[in-house]
Design a protein that fits this description.
The chain is an alpha+beta fold and 437 residues long. The protein has helices at residues 57-66, 70-78, 84-91, 139-156, 158-161, 169-178, 190-201, 294-298, 313-337, 357-362, 379-383, 391-401, and strands at 19-31, 46-47, 51-53, 112-115, 203-207, 210-211, 228-230, 239-242, 248-251, 253-264, 270-293, 300-302, 341-345, 351-354, 372-373, 414-418, 424-426, 430-436. Strands 1, 2, 3, 4, 7, 10, 11, 15, 16, 17 and 18 form an eleven-stranded mixed sheet that branches. It has a three-stranded antiparallel sheet with strand order 6-5-12. It has a two-stranded antiparallel ribbon with strand order 8-9. 33% of the residues are buried.
């Protein structure tokens, strides 16, 4: 087989195709998308009492060279030490306003966040930034979440879409049980082999009444998600506006907050596990677009006669909402079973009140008001089809591929965001897609 070469370039026939395009506003109460760097070293950020700054490191090195402090900076980097005292010594108390000789800010405002924690910030997890250093949500992250929702939809409705028997949940469970011992070595790709390749890429293509020559699958050319394009969001810019009660509300606020990782004991009492400090955005409102190339979609015919799971954008949104509802129900039940622990201790043996009243209130609605859960906090339920699996098997997979928690449900732990008083207040990632005209 030779690689697909007969299909014309998308841009060359754009005018001939039926492209369905819809614009949406992405809304989320609290949101984090991780960057390619999982966490920052102490010299890569500077935390003050109310702000956290991520310097332009080239501009900072240039300015420190001009002040004769470059070698000290290098020494601190090598020793993984903080640099706040060095900045004060080199530039004074208002070091955060310093510019290079050519007027370039060392600590640009768009790389600064409000500090929402009084705890010492360690191993800061940065959020994704574009090439200009501004926060944004990649379209690939949204599309990846949509892809998981589609897989869940197909497997849950296998008869309706004529999913091949070897790729249905019963078969997936059997194959997982028979290969648990080897799962750790190939966990990253096991879902492709078990079902993802079949659900998305085992298609033949017919263009202008001619079958296109393609490689053996898996092949991105025969993946139905080629017909779906999701744009990156606009850069996330902070703004304020009045709400319906006449109160001023800040949107797209960049924050650094404490994320509490908690689980529970055998008696269901909440238990502290760890604190993570992450850059995130509160009251996120940012636009993006979804496009379906409906002509391209018509080229696809599944080799095992499975039906296409969507025809238009409305179908995609409906699939996402159904998946979100499944996650919502799962999370509601989880939090109902966890008991508050007002006398918990953190990793430093300091008291921390694990009171989940705000989380219970968040999940009290029966109908999920969101379209999808995206990014950090989604966990096993949002990034896999795990909740379709037998509970015991799902726990076994977790124990082999992740952090072991024998005899407990999977997933066992959760991430919640604390306010400055260390009160548990927010969950991450729940997102609305509001159509824009």
């Amino acid at each position: 087989m030779t690689q697909l070469t007969t299909l014309p370039d998308r841009s060359a026939i754009r005018e001939q195709r039926k492209l369905e395009v819809k614009k949406f506003q992405l809304y989320s109460q609290m949101f984090h998308i991780g960057s390619e760097v999982s966490k920052l070293n102490p010299f890569e950020y500077v935390a003050t009492g109310n702000r956290v700054y991520l310097p332009d490191r080239d501009a900072l090195a240039q300015a420190l060279r001009e002040e004769g402090k470059l070698q000290e900076y290098i020494n601190r980097i090598e020793d993984r030490q903080e640099i706040t005292s060095l900045l004060k010594n080199a530039f004074g108390d208002r070091w955060y306003e310093t510019e290079t000789d050519d007027g370039k800010p060392i600590f640009p405002e768009y790389r600064a966040s409000k500090r929402l924690t009084e705890q010492k910030i360690t191993d800061l997890r940065p959020m994704m930034r574009n090439g200009m250093g501004k926060l944004y949500v990649p379209g690939t992250s949204i599309k990846g979440a949509i892809r998981t929702a589609i897989a869940y939809h197909l497997l849950k409705n296998a008869d309706r879409f004529r999913v091949p028997q070897r790729n249905r949940i019963s078969s997936i469970e059997t194959q997982l049980k028979n290969n648990l011992g080897e799962l750790r070595q190939r966990a990253k790709f096991v879902d492709d082999r078990l079902f993802m390749d079949e659900l998305f890429a085992n298609y033949g293509l017919t263009y202008q009444n001619r079958a296109a020559s393609v490689q053996d699958r898996p092949n991105p050319n025969t993946d139905i998600m080629r017909a779906v394009h999701v744009t990156d969001t606009d850069p996330i810019e902070q703004f304020t506006k009045l709400n319906k009660n006449g109160q001023t509300v800040t949107y797209n606020q960049a924050l650094v907050a404490e994320v509490l990782v908690t689980s529970h004991s055998n008696d269901d009492k909440a238990k502290y596990r760890a604190s993570i400090y992450a850059e995130m955005v509160s009251n996120l409102q940012v636009p993006f677009e979804i496009t379906i190339d409906q002509e391209m979609l018509s080229w696809f015919k599944h080799r095992q006669n499975m039906q296409l799971p969507f025809q238009n954008i409305d179908d995609l949104i409906k699939i996402c909402k159904e998946f979100a509802q499944e996650q919502w129900n799962f999370e509601h039940d989880y939090w109902q079973g966890v008991k508050d622990n007002i006398n918990a201790k953190d990793g430093n043996q300091q008291p921390i009140n694990l009171n989940y009243d705000r989380i219970h209130k968040f999940y009290e609605k029966e109908t999920c008001p969101y379209a999808l859960r995206i990014g950090w906090g989604s966990g096993m339920t949002g990034t896999t089809i795990g909740t379709l699996l037998d509970d015991e098997l799902r726990a076994q997979v977790r124990d082999i591929c992740g952090i072991k928690a024998p005899n407990f449900e999977a997933p066992k732990s959760r991430r919640t965001v604390a306010n400055a008083k260390r009160e548990i207040q927010f969950v991450l990632g729940w997102s609305m897609f509001k159509p824009l005209i």
